[in-house]
Design a protein that fits this description.
By secondary structure, this protein is mostly helical. The chain has 16 helices and no strands.
Length: 383
């Protein structure tokens, strides 16, 4: 099923009959499989953070994860590509949600979706890391406050959440899409032009190495966002050859950047060795999964529990890494649980915490914040 946008109606001329009210924006049909894919991508990232890399998690385990998971740590290392899959999904969803929506509504939708759980996660991780029994270093009070803005990276403040770098990439994508598509009004022509110009500009930014252009245009991640936008155009019309071209070019460039950034020659100093073929395969599967959803091939997967999976994904993603370290250390080093039991139990604890955040924070704070941000200021009456 395709989703059509609405066209703004002109205002009535003075003295003429009032123009008919604009049609309400038609709600897009829920794509349940997309919710499930979100959670799969989040679990991939969690597997990477718990068993596919060194760093602070090695302290939590007491040894390197390669010792804890001698057969699977190499597979877990590919879990970091869940982020690229997230970006493809984000391109699809943002184009879908921004189509036919005014800028104020688009901003309110994004802010109310991201901020409530994020603010609570910042406070929660800061408080837990400040406990005397927790050995991980907390950030300064000033940096913790800056983290509430989501602008800690460009401002040079320490991050409370390790995963928040992806939110900074998302914010830049939202800004580009809002200015170039939502503000003037989404049309197929405008979206195609946006994808084409961003693809070329990102390639030029990579070629020149100009820091400001690289920061704004994100050459490394742009093809994944753009690919998702192209797949939404396919969702609207599967016969759209131009949309398929956008997807194909984005996949080709995206796999290049994924291999360039994540592949390295076998080296004992590195934690793990990802093959270039493996990286390409994961990127391809991510694009293919979103394409299957866009084409309607997953329409039968309309189970209600997938909605719950989608609702848990974002809060789970926020809290799983840093609080996961604390849970792993408590369960494995102090309680003496085996590695696999600890791994599964930590995932379960983080999903439970995500459910609590969704149930007791997002379910009331998100609609409240959306209403507040959508509220238009009342005009001042002059005496």
């Amino acid at each position: 099923m395709t989703v059509t946008g609405t066209t703004a109606l002109p205002e009535a001329a003075p003295g003429s009959a009032a123009a008919p009210p604009p049609r309400a924006r038609r709600a897009a049909p829920r794509l349940y499989a997309l919710d499930g894919l979100r959670l799969i991508a989040a679990l991939m990232v969690a597997a990477y953070h718990y068993g596919g890399r060194d760093g602070e998690v090695s302290h939590a385990w007491g040894t390197s994860p390669r010792v804890q998971f001698p057969s699977l740590h190499g597979w877990f290392a590919y879990g970091c590509l869940g982020v690229q899959i997230f970006f493809v999904i984000s391109g699809f969803v943002i184009c879908m949600s921004g189509w036919g929506r005014p800028l104020r509504s688009f901003f309110a939708s994004r802010a109310s979706r991201l901020l409530p759980s994020y603010w609570v996660a910042i406070a929660l991780v800061t408080a837990v890391f400040a406990l005397p029994v927790v050995v991980y270093r907390t950030v300064s009070p000033s940096d913790a406050l800056v983290n509430l803005t989501m602008l800690q990276q460009p401002l040079g403040a320490d991050r409370v959440l390790g995963v928040c770098w992806t939110l900074w990439a998302e914010l830049r994508f939202y800004a580009l899409f809002a200015l170039c598509v939502v503000l003037p009004g989404a049309t197929r022509h405008r979206v195609v032009l946006f994808c084409a110009v961003w693809t070329l500009a990102a390639a030029l930014a990579e070629a020149t190495g100009e820091p400001l252009l690289t920061l704004a245009l994100m050459p490394e991640y742009a093809p994944f966002f753009i690919g998702g936008i192209g797949l939404y155009l396919v969702h609207r019309d599967r016969r759209d050859v131009t949309a398929w071209g956008i997807v194909a070019v984005s996949w080709l460039i995206g796999q290049h950047f994924a291999v360039d950034r994540l592949w390295h020659a076998p080296n004992p100093d590195f934690f793990s060795y990802r093959t270039s073929v493996g990286i390409i395969a994961v990127v391809t599967v991510g694009f293919a999964a979103v394409a299957a959803i866009a084409l309607g091939w997953t329409a039968r997967a309309n189970w209600r529990w997938l909605t719950v999976a989608g609702a848990l994904t974002y809060p789970f993603y926020l809290v799983h890494e840093h609080l996961g370290w604390v849970a792993i250390e408590a369960l494995h080093r102090h309680a003496g649980l085996p590695s696999w039991v600890t791994f599964g139990a930590t995932i379960g604890v983080m999903l439970t915490l995500a459910w609590l955040l969704n149930r007791y924070v997002e379910e009331w704070a998100t609609p409240l914040l959306r209403r507040v941000l959508n509220r238009r200021p009342q005009p001042q009456l002059t005496p």
